[in-house]
Amino acid sequence: MVALALLSRILAASIGCYGLASLWSIALALAWPGPRADGVMLGLVSAFAIGTLAVLWVFAASTAWRAWAGLLLPAAILAGIVFWPGLP
């Protein structure tokens, strides 16, 4: 059982953090009020920090369920921003 929890955290740290950082980068580029190139650059650079913080969160969470929830909730919010019909 412990091995499955560890495997789940490893998958969350690799796949989940990549998805969260990608959604962050896209959402920031779309929502940035200034020039599009500035939003894209800021999104890409800050995605590294978001990914690092997400990996730290995954292994600091008390359970694997909480680690996944801590990734999926912000990812759902960011996906809502990315797929919002009013944004270009």
What features would you describe in this structure?
With 88 residues, the protein is mainly α. 84% of the residues lie in helices and 0% in strands. The protein has 3 helices and no strands. The longest helix is centred in the N-terminal third of the chain and has 30 residues. The mean pLDDT is 92.
> Strand share of the residues?
under 5%
Question: What is the overall shape?
Answer: elongated
Radius of gyration over C-alpha positions, nearest whole angstrom: 14 Å
How many helices? The count is 3
Number of strands: 0
* Low-confidence residue ranges: none
Instruction: Tell me the helix content.
Output: over 70%
The largest β sheet comes out as: none
Terminal CA distance: 46 Å
Mean pLDDT over the full residue set: 92
Based on helices, strands and strand pairing, what is the structural class? mainly alpha
From N to C, what is the helix and strand string? HHH
List keywords for this structure.
88 residues, mainly alpha, 3 helices, 84% helix
